[in-house]
Amino acid sequence: MNPIKNIKTKENQLSKRYKQLIEQAYNFRQTDSTLSDISEYRAIKLLNKLNRLKYLNRDESQVNV
Is residue 62 predicted with pLDDT exceeding 80? Predict the structure, then answer.
């Protein structure tokens, strides 16, 4: 499989999961602040991974130009 396609696929998966965790953190904000904080922490960790993948994808697109 193409490495760029693998990166894009993983990026899409992480993006969907990030959005779910942010929504979950928002929904828990009023009822359970601990669960909200945990969801937000996980979302931040996923965002870090997502940013690294975007950086890799950016490098690949610059090489191909």
Answer: no
